[in-house]
Each structure stands twice: as structure tokens, then as C-alpha cells.
Design brief:
Layout: E1 2-3, E2 14-18, E3 23-32, E4 40-48, E5 54-58, E6 68-71, E7 75-83, E8 86-94, E9 100-104, H1 108-124, H2 126-138, H3 146-171, H4 174-182, H5 194-205, H6 227-240, H7 250-277, H8 281-297
Antiparallel strand pairs: 1-2, 2-3, 3-4, 3-9, 4-5, 5-6, 7-8, 8-9
Length: 298
């Protein structure tokens, strides 16, 4: 290994080392968290070539164990995205649509260097990637790799957290119950529109022992206006601990999730328009927040 003369000398942002086949580098990037509300986190990234090509990321360069990793043979595509006329963001897509990683560099030059390196990492493992895409299902093994399953679990966890946030918004003010009555509904929770849509989603992707099970609550224990909300909370508790159906792939899960979010957004638009007509600002703001949450998920 020799010090590269192609790029600037090591700095606080990145340092580069040359191998015979691949430019490897390490340095700080911002990584967007997959968890709601999706904050940007500073992470120290490093390319590992052996024993297998990985893109590792750490909280700090001195850490012994990485915070996470991206397998080179599981990268389907990498693109750059412009902000204010400059390419400073990188999007890494995984095979089977398992997950997308959103990264942000300090400068356009640094972004280009990382993009080039990740591209080379993909080319180096191209043959392995083909095996990754075609192998497991052809051999009769489980449809998804452990990494894909881990990504699916992360998406599921974030979705459930997001749905809980939406319910919390609806329960936060009495104006939602008042508006629900204006719409001739019994409970504020009917305004969410997402409960039946996502109950159907979870019944498709989760391996419930009884797919038609219902959460039972006694009316003498809760208020009638809170009943459906609390039943859905109980349903989410059950979904959170239930494994995925073996018949569902990461790609199918992503498609179902996108469809469910879009259906919910369309229904929320109807309620927002009516709230605007009656000038109920609290309801407009709250339902808009919930809409934006589902837009982020999509």
C-alpha cells in the first residue's frame, strides 16, 4: 500500500490509501438515521477490503466495533444528489430494495471521491452481487438474507414508532374530537384513516398465529372515544413481536408499505380540506403533521 497522489493529503474529512485494484478511503460523512424523525448523524466511514468488502461506519475513528456496515455485494446502485447546485449527497440502494442509505459529504469534491470509491467497490464485487441476487431463492433457502431481514425489521420498527406518533398527535387536543363529531364520527381516531389500512398491511407481512385476531378491551376500562385508538395500540404491540411471513420478500414489503402510505395520505387530504373550510387550524396542523410523517415513510 502506498499513499495516493491522486487526491489531496489526509484531512479532517477523509484520508485515502491505494490498493492494487481499489481506492480505499475513510473519513467523516453525515448519515441520515432510518428512525423517525430521521435526523442526520455524524459517522466515521471506512472501506474494508478483507476478508470481504464492506463499507463500515463508526461513531468515532477510535471505536473498536463499527456502528453498522454495508455489504459491497448487496449494493444495487449508488447515485449523487445535488443540493444548491452542488453534489454533496450520496444515495446507496441495496439489492431487493432492502434499504436506502442517505449520506452527506462536507464538500462536492469529497462527495465525488466517496462516490467513485463506492462505485469501484461495487465493480469489484459484481460477480458476487449476481450470485447474491439469484442464489438464495434458486437453492430453496429462505427468500431473504439475514441482512435484508435485519433491514426489514428496522423498517417495521420505525413504522410502528411513526404510527404511535400519529396516534399521539390525534389524542393531544380536544379539537380533534370536536372535528370528528363535525364529520359525524364517534371518535377522533377515525380521522387518522391509517388504522384499517395498516392493520391490513401488518396482516399481510406478519405471520400472526391467527391473522384475523382482534384486540379485546372492556368499555368499563376505557373511554368510548379512546377505545379504537387503544385497540390499535394493542394491535401494534402484537405486530412488533410477530415474525415476518416467509412468503413476503423485502421488495413486496416495500411495495405494500408505499401503497398503504399513499392510501392514507389521500384520505387525510379530504379531512384537511374540510378542516380548512371550517377554519379549524389545530386540526389542519395536526393532520398535516401526520401526512408529512407518511410522506417521509414513502
Amino acid at each position: 500500500l502506498i499513499q495516493s497522489n491522486t487526491f489531496p493529503p489526509p484531512s479532517l474529512h477523509s484520508r485515502w490509501i491505494m490498493s492494487e485494484k481499489l481506492e480505499t478511503m475513510s473519513g467523516y460523512l453525515q448519515k441520515q438515521s432510518p428512525k423517525f424523525p430521521f435526523p442526520w448523524q455524524k459517522r466515521f466511514f471506512e472501506v474494508q477490503l478483507k476478508p470481504k468488502p464492506l463499507l463500515l461506519y463508526f461513531v468515532s475513528p477510535g471505536d473498536v466495533a463499527p456502528k453498522g456496515s454495508i455489504r459491497a455485494d448487496a449494493i444495487a446502485d449508488v447515485t449523487m444528489e445535488a443540493r444548491r447546485g452542488k453534489n454533496t449527497r450520496i444515495i446507496i440502494s441495496q439489492t431487493n430494495h432492502a434499504r436506502k442509505y442517505y449520506l452527506k459529504a462536507a464538500t462536492a469534491e469529497n462527495c465525488q471521491q466517496w462516490y467513485n470509491t463506492i462505485r469501484q467497490l461495487m465493480e469489484m464485487t459484481e460477480s458476487k452481487e449476481a450470485d447474491y441476487n439469484n442464489g438464495p431463492q434458486a437453492s430453496g433457502e429462505p427468500a431473504e438474507t439475514k441482512e435484508n431481514l435485519d433491514a426489514m425489521k428496522a423498517v417495521q420498527k420505525n413504522l410502528i414508532e411513526g404510527l404511535r406518533v400519529a396516534s399521539k398527535i390525534l389524542r393531544s387536543k380536544g379539537s380533534f374530537q370536536k372535528f370528528a363529531m363535525h364529520m359525524e364520527y364517534q371518535s377522533y381516531f377515525d380521522l387518522g384513516a391509517y388504522a384499517p389500512i395498516f392493520a391490513n398491511y401488518f396482516r399481510k407481512v406478519c405471520a400472526f398465529r391467527n391473522p384475523k385476531f382482534e384486540v379485546q378491551l372492556k368499555l368499563d376500562d376505557v373511554s368510548s372515544v379512546d377505545l379504537e385508538c387503544l385497540k390499535f395500540e394493542g394491535f401494534l404491540d402484537e405486530a412488533a413481536i410477530t415474525p415476518f411471513s416467509s412468503r413476503v420478500t423485502a421488495e413486496q414489503m416495500e411495495t405494500l408499505l408505499a401503497e398503504s402510505c399513499k392510501k392514507t395520505i389521500e384520505k387525510l387530504k379530504v379531512y384537511i380540506r374540510e378542516a380548512e373550510n371550517v377554519k379549524d387550524d389545530d386540526v389542519v396542523v395536526g393532520l398535516t403533521q401526520i401526512t408529512n410523517l407518511f410522506k417521509c415513510i414513502v
